[in-house]
Amino acid sequence: FGSSLGVSRVPIGHCPRWIGRAARRGASAVLPRWLRLGGLFCPNMLRMLSVRSGRAPRLTWRHCGKLVAMTEPEPRSLADFEVNFRAALGTGTCGSVYSGLHRDTHREVAIKVVSPALPSASNEELAIGVAQETQVFEQVLQACESHPHVVDLLGCFQGPSSEATQLGLEVPEEAAEEPLHYFVMERLSGESLADRIEREKGLEEKAAKEATRSICEGLSFLHGQGIVHRDVKPANVLYTPEASESDLKLIDFSHSGIVPDSEDLNSRCLQSTLGTAGYVAPEVLAGREPYSAKCDVYSLGCTVHAMLAGGRLPRRHPRLGIMTSLPESASPEASNFLDSLLSPTPELRPTIHEVLSSSWLQ
């Protein structure tokens, strides 16, 4: 079975991501629990690959493009890829995303390019955004884990603008001597949750439940890594091609933050005012004091409301404090679920783990 999927095994010491952690904590502490139990779980193919004790798997993408490679070689330069710079997959305030193909593994990827000459952001804002996103990528890569509901983050690097311009990327003259920052991730070609909400004028409650559970599981994984997304919204959730109701992934970590090791996820230790209007938590928008990872729970609530209400954002009655914009077809359980997520007081909101165990999602 293993050979047919193109699986080979190498000692942990051969993988640079594992060396430092194994030396500090011991190999058994570094290995994820599910790997120590004797198997590598592949969430995309729902199979267990045999792994010998003390060894980490190296999966060859050339043979199986859906397996999660914990020791897949990290991209180090633009030369590792064939990139189509003539047509962007998407453009945002922090950069543009292009399709690419890894030369060695033949894996299709999406490459986000951040230029220091972006007109929509100051140099200071750009530097902060690049540093935050780099930190998130490094945090996930060091963990050597992935999740079926979070886009695979494959690596980040920087390179001279001249290298990209030779491949067709248009770079402003004032940035010709500046380095470009690259963030490489798996390419997802499915539609976004926002597109589906607009196309179908909202989701049936059963479909909304399944999508919500998947988003929650992705957020739970990120929070477990100490990562707070800070921009949860339908546009940042993509379906995989030919997906079921639950086959979707969280994307875009340009606003994400890392909770310091010394802090708890529920402690108020984040400060930047980031997010999207209509989805950002009130304590973040106020900008008066630090906030916690529960800002993601509020944004999740807005996202669930958009699914049920056909894209309309939640509104509360000014005196009664109840939802007035949910459709009549929404169940009382859905309304109660949203009330808990959308509490204006962070301390009254559930954690993402508590959300997963809520009655509406069972």
From TrEMBL:
Cleavable signal peptide: none
Entries under InterPro entries matching the protein: CDPK_Ser/Thr_kinases, Kinase-like_dom_sf, Prot_kinase_dom, Ser/Thr_kinase_AS
Keywords: ATP-binding, Kinase, Nucleotide-binding, Serine/threonine-protein kinase, Transferase
Entries under SUPFAM superfamilies matching the protein: Protein kinase-like (PK-like)
Entry GO MF terms: ATP binding; protein serine/threonine kinase activity
Listed Pfam families: Pkinase (PF00069)
Domain Protein kinase: 83-361
Superkingdom in the source lineage: Eukaryota
Keyword ATP-binding included in the entry's annotation: yes
UniProt protein name: Protein kinase domain-containing protein
